[in-house]
## 1
Amino acid sequence: MLDENGLQLSWDDIANEEKSNPKEIKRKAPDGVSTTDLVFSAYVAENAPVFKNILALHVPTNSIVADVTYGKGAFWKEVPKDSYILYATDLKTGVDFSHLPYDNESIDCVVLDPPYMEGLLRRKENHMAGSGKFSAFRDSYSNGKATDYSEGKPKYHDAVLDLYFKAAKEATRVLKKNGVFIVKCQDEVSANKQRLTHVELINEYEKMGYYCKDLFVVVRTNKPSISRMVKQQHARKNHSYFLVFIKKEKRKKG
């Protein structure tokens, strides 16, 4: 601020001026209102209410959303119908998320939730590993095929990451510029080694041209248990993540 002679005033001079002439100093009132009605980053909840909040925050209504692992539509239970133009596909509908039937840059948002624990991809005798809710998960998302462990193919946790990377490559093709990529994942311990899946995905996706705009933590509402344990080596995972990525525009060279 300058005085009447055009000289710069110090902060003390400004403070004194405000005290002596309070009506002459006009302050611009900030926009917005005070509220606690906010979207938060962590929830003890099921997936559906969290997913609804993510869409409300990051995906405008009437957008074209391709849920490429739709299954039984668990994510969409609390999303008002007709809010979005939904393309609901999965392997059971004959659509592989690594080969989507959409034109280049035609989709506003892609939603991905593949089998994110390596045990779901292993075969035990004549059936896939896991039981209970895992069985229901495979019924929704899997075509029943086990991981191909032939020479040169990714194994165990790396087989899980391979699914995510292939899906991201195809999402890059179909997403519009600045399109939204919503990804569900969970960290896991594989071969007694901690694998922070959400970190691995963020790092790799950034190389592919994505920006991680947001991260949501979903904590299980029930307490996980184990039938047999000799000694616990790692903290048991009772949370998963929704990662929200934005497809960055490629800068033109020159």
Note: Helices lie at 11-20, 47-58, 133-141, 156-174, 197-207.
## 2
Amino acid sequence: MIRKIRILTAGLFFVLITLVFTGVLHPWFGWLAKIQLIPAILSVNGMMLFILAFITLLSGRIYCSVICPLGILQDGISALSGRRRGKKTRFRYSKAKSWLRYGVLVLFIAAAMAGVNAVVSLLDPYAAYGRIASSLPAPLFHWGNNLLARFAEQVDSYAFYATEVRIKSGILSGVAAVTLLAIGILAWLNGRTYCNTVCPVGTVLGFLSRFSIFRLTFDTDKCTKCGRCERICKASCIDSKNRSIDRSRCVACFNCMEACHFNALKYTSVRIGKQKPAEVAGGSAQEGLSRRNLLAVAGALALTQVTEAQQLLQVDGGLAEIKDKKAPDRKTPVVPPGAQGLKNMQTHCTACQLCMSACPENILHPSVKLATFLQPEMSYERGYCRPECTECSRVCPAGAIKPVTVADKTGISIGYAVWNRDYCVVNIDRVPCTNCERHCPTKAITLVALEPDSKNTLKTPVIDKELCIGCGACEYLCPARPFSAIYVEGNLRHHSV
């Protein structure tokens, strides 16, 4: 019964957090991201850290088997592998690779202290799953939405509307695909190898779980040393010959309890249990991955990345081609209101992509710079940062984007507009244009006459940087192509206007 409860709870958590990353359930279940360990550490959420530590000290690595989405994903892949190969009892005990576990943990801590967040984000299991869930299945969700929109349109309903099917970022999808492939192969072959040899969260919680009150124990009077529990342990932490369990690697999945035909394994408190101290061990099972299985995994991965080969040509009235806008070469990246500046974003963001999924304007894109690899940056080719929207600050679990109110946001300057006369249609085509002035929410843009002495002269913009908040409305709505004549440069540190 305890195993079934664990599976049902883990499945519910997994489905909900996946839907959160795809942008469906942010308002109701965004808190699932805030109960993850690394975001709780980066946001200095003392209460959540205490709760997670208390749960681990009470019951072992329940976090890894119920709350961590990457751990649940590995369980699913491992279970699929067992069914595919007809081997439900395919593991064996192996000693722990402590040098690798603690070496990765030291690297993780050193990278966090040095501000090398590219390493931190790649090793964080929550962020790794976030990149997988937010990028790879995205085309499938868009196709499903467009299919519903087509049916709704036929019955004169607009509950759904068609959206563009596209990949957010080739680099982001590539990193997510490589992560899924690597972790998927490890899980397919050896179950929880990644959790117990690489994952820094698993190492930290494994250390705490050594002292857990409730734990799995052997009843020596009933145990026959048949080895069935050892062969079904996906963490490879049960030594049936010596009747010992490495609690630092046990993820409390309870598969062994159900597999034991003699009820020799019990999940009980340390006072009742008579288990000998577990050996510090680690390792991996030796099972091969057939070429057919590898192709199946690769094919399923490729399916999630398929998008339309070519987009339909965008035309105005069937005559003039409308060129897509290109992002300007910004000297300083623009980061969302609430980030406080580039330094806070760089040191706290795990690049989980949750803010990008939540952004209704699709103006957040992953950085390709090494120092801020895959962290969000703002770009205004498809929209601008609307003053009434605070979604990214509401969903960020790591404190990289602090919560802000609508009233606060309208007074935060994240950047300033810059005018380039060489792209402006007023200068190039000699036609009047007032888009930037009309749409500026803070009235930071004023049009002045090119020839002050002439009554019918054309007008060009002048920008008051003290009033500009960097929302990007002027850049997005500028008619110049392919580069806007007015664009936003980021502020190193945000300030009030």
Note: The CA atoms of residues 423 and 429 lie 10 Å apart.
